[in-house]
Each structure stands twice: as C-alpha cells, then as structure tokens.
Amino acid sequence: MAVLPTLRQLRFLVAVIDERHFGRAAEVCLVGQSTLSAGILELEQLLGVRLFERTKRKVSPTPVGRELAERARTLLREAQDIVELARAAQAPMSGPLRLGVIPTIGPFLFPRVLPRLRSAFPELKLYLREEQTEPLLARLDAGELDAAVLALPYPSRGMETIDIGVDPFVVVCPPGHRLSRLSAVGHDDMAAEDLLLLEEGHCLRDHALAACALEGARRNVAFQGTSLYTLAQMVANGLGVTLLPQMALDAGILRGLDLVVRPLSGEAPFRRIGLVFRASSARKETFRRLARALEGFLEEAAQEKGKTFTAPARGARRSGAARLDS
C-alpha cells in the first residue's frame, strides 16, 4: 500500500500557499519554521514533485503545488467535519464556534445578544469575525468559519440558510428637512433627494435600494459612507438623507445627533437576517439552536417596540421573508 500524505503535511502546504512565506505559515500552523520546512520537504519527496519555487526573496507555488493545495483544502474541511460530527453528537452547544458577521449587523446585534447567548449556552465559545459578505462567504467555504450571520438575499452556493428575522428600513433626515414634515415618506419623495449610501461592497446598500424600490433614485455619489455611523454623521451635517435599518436605531446609532426618523409609506420594506452555513456541515443542530436563540431575541426586541413579529417558517434553506409590520 502506498504511503499517503498526512493531514499535518497538507495543512503545511495550504498555509504556505496562502501566506507565500514559510515563516508566516509556520506561525499560522503554530510550529517552528524548521518543522514546517521539513514537513514540506517530506511531502515533496513522498509525492515526487516540487511544490514550490524557492528564492531568497519569495516563495512561489508550482502549478502542481497550487492544484494539490486546492484538493488538500477539501480534505482538510472534510476531516474537520468528522471531528465536528463527533463533537456535535456528544454536546451540540459546546466547544468553539467561529461565527462571521457583517458590519451592518455585528455592532448593533451582538453587544445586546451575547450575554444572553452566554447564559443560555455556557459551554459554547463564540469567536466573532466582522467582515463584508463576500469575504465572509469565502472564509466559510474554505472552512475558516463555521457559520455567518448575514443580510439576505445574497448568492451563496453550497450553503444552507435559516432565517432568523427581518430588519425594517427607515428614513433619516435633518430636522426642518421637507421629509421631516411628512408622517410617512413615499418612494417618489425619496427619489428626489440626495440619497446617502454605503460605499460599494456593503450588501446593505443594494438591499436598501431594492427593498425600498429606489434603484433609480438620485444618489449622492460624491459622499459615500464607510459605515452606518458615518452615514448618520453625514446626514447630521446636512449632506443628504439616508436609509438605516431599525436594528441600528434600536442600538442607539443616532444618540447625541439631532436627526428625525420617518417610516416609509406602504408595506414596510425590510432586509432578511439569516444564519448561513455549509450544506455539508456536521453541526446543523448547533446552528438550528443558535438561530432559534437569535430569532427569539429579535422577536422580543420587536415586541418591546410595539411591533408584530412573524417568525419565519421552520427548517433549513428557508425561502420567503418574514415581516415586521409597523
């Protein structure tokens, strides 16, 4: 029987491909550089091919090294799934869980919900990573994250989704602005304004425009926010009006600012909030319980605001959006 590469050697290979540097790869793998270099050399001798072109200044993967690394990623993910399957069978709400979250949700949801999650699941160790949707999904696909809390819809191949609630959009403008004199703002009213949005790359930008039917609205392209906090400050400085999610308002994003909030007329527009994970993951029971806990928090928050909450239908890969009626 042929001698096969070890998972440790494959992990070394992937780390060097990612870091393009033996020293940094060794740090990622928590080993010394000599140990990592020896492991790569053993793998090359075992396979009979060169995996890297080495110079004093850089390390470049060979074509076969690059292809082998991609296959190694799949093997490493599946090996991790085996470990997670065993752990989940014993205690689904225990151990580490690497959870991604986007910047338009993380600062407004998790400071309020984390204490409750710690109380409900004391053996679960949550590690949060905040990043935009596309890189989070890439990390999720690569096995660097276990799940992610995202705003939907968003294309995500090979993933399953559990809806945990919805987040309505509202209009924010300065006092004395013509929109502040309206009890509810219509789409035509918004289309005539300088609309301040997040910069490209933030999914909330597209969700807000689509949900509020404002794809053709005039946009203040000269000023684009890097965060929701920046948008609020720009509105306070008279640069235009914006759309903010209710979640951010509830977390106090407008505290200390002299601004007016108005609902949009008609059916309340919203973005869906969902928990996304790999379809192949062995921790689906963990994700179901976590999603239900997050859904419960959003439901209670909505009731405190005097709104009617409609929970999404149970089950993974859920379709359709729940509603929060103002």
3D structure, described in words:
With 326 residues, the protein is α/β, with parallel strands linked by helices. Helix content is 42%, strand content 22%. The protein has eleven helices and 13 strands. It has helices at 7-19, 22-29, 33-47, 63-90, 106-120, 133-141, 187-191, 203-211, 228-236, 246-250, 284-304; strands spanning 52-54, 59-61, 95-101, 124-130, 147-152, 159-173, 195-198, 219-225, 241-245, 260-262, 270-278, 308-309, 324-325. The strands form three sheets. Strands 3, 4, 5, 6, 7, 8, 9, 10 and 11 form a nine-stranded mixed β-sheet that branches. Strands 1-2 form a two-stranded antiparallel ribbon. Strands 12-13 form a two-stranded antiparallel ribbon. Strand 3 (95-101), helix 5 (106-120) and strand 4 form a beta-alpha-beta unit. The radius of gyration is 24 Å and the shape is elongated. The relative contact order is 0.14.
Chart the SSEs and their pairings.
Elements: H1 7-19, H2 22-29, H3 33-47, E1 52-54, E2 59-61, H4 63-90, E3 95-101, H5 106-120, E4 124-130, H6 133-141, E5 147-152, E6 159-173, H7 187-191, E7 195-198, H8 203-211, E8 219-225, H9 228-236, E9 241-245, H10 246-250, E10 260-262, E11 270-278, H11 284-304, E12 308-309, E13 324-325
Parallel strand pairs: 3-4, 3-5, 7-8, 7-9
Antiparallel strand pairs: 1-2, 5-11, 6-9, 6-10, 6-11, 12-13
Helix pairs in contact: 1-2, 1-3, 1-4, 2-3
